[in-house]
Amino acid sequence: MILNRRAFISKTALTAGTLAFGSSAFGQKASEDAFQLPDLPYAPDALAPHIDAQTMRIHHGKHHAGYTAKLNKALASLPKMKGASIEEILKSLPKVLDPTVRTSLRNNGGGYFNHKLFWEIMAPAGQTGQPSSALSRAIDQSFGSLEKLQEAVTRAALTQFGSGWAWLIVQDGKLMVTSTANQDNPLMQGLIPNRALGTPILGVDVWEHAYYLKYQNQRGAYLSAWWEVVNWDRVSQNFDQA
Ligand code: MN
Predict the structure, then answer these.
(1) Parallel/antiparallel/unpaired status of strands 199-205 and 164-171
(2) Distance from the CA of 117 to the center of ligand 1, in angstroms?
(3) How many angstroms separate the alpha carbon of residue 14 from the centre of ligand 1?
(4) Which of 23, 52, 192, 211 is a Cys-bridge partner for 77, taking CB atoms 3.0 to 4.6 Å apart?
(5) Residue 164 in contact with residue 206, Cβ under 8 Å?
């Protein structure tokens, strides 16, 4: 796994190295949008009562849609990034020369990636599966038990001041819990502390827009409910691929 990860990073670095990231006045047409808002993998009310339908509709249809549109707008000034994956873009941000474009890619590219992962790692209660045996072993090694892992993620989510995310990441083949501010994420090498870098396999959104309609200021109540809809089958797949 470590060798594969190194090979991937080295391939990404090479790819990034061949691209010139200066801005251009030539924009893309809307029909050439690099990224599209992904559909929710379930109905907006499928996670209720843990996450209510109105929150899901606004979160996906307004917030995630907004990040996606602004990501495409920022990319329109970087024709050399055409065809790059969102992961490649997020790992290449320090090479983007224009500070306005770089900030927009950081916020909106982060928002695009983070929410896509967030929808995927949730499922209706009762359809969430369980951690695979490989993931369970890794959880036991790093945290002692699934309960201890959940405590660590919850603690990171509760102590993230203001808006941000708490993450379960694979770093050098090991599981770790970390958190980032705003729409930053563990892929953003060069922008966040090295200790928070890795491949995210689970993330929880602690922006107030993720919970305020139902839970108001009670972030802890939201997090307790959120664990009921974590899709362990998907997290296990993400772990296998990390
Ligand atoms: Mn959000």
Answers:
(1) antiparallel
(2) 11
(3) 32
(4) 23
(5) yes
Beta bridge partners of 164: 181
Query: How far does the centroid of ligand 1 lie from the alpha carbon of residue 18, in Å?
Result: 33
Both tokens of residue 221? 């109540």
CA-to-CA distance for 162 and 181, rounded, in angstroms?
A: 8
CATH superfamily for domain 51-242: Iron/manganese superoxide dismutase, C-terminal domain (3.55.40.20)
Domain residue spans in the chain? 51-242
Q: How far is the CA of 54 from the centre of ligand 1 (A)?
A: 13
Query: Which pLDDT value is given to residue 32?
Result: 74
Q: Decide: residue 112, CB within 10 A, 0-12 exposed, 13-18 middle, 19+ buried.
A: buried
Determine the Cα–Cα distance for residues 127 and 178; give it in Å rounded to an integer. Answer: 26
Which residue numbers in the chain have pLDDT < 70? 1-31
Residue 189 is predicted with a pLDDT of 95
Give me ligand 1 centre to Cα 63, in Å: 7
Q: What is the spatial order of strands in the sheet that 164-171 belongs to?
A: 174-181, 164-171, 199-205
Model pLDDT, residue 29: 47
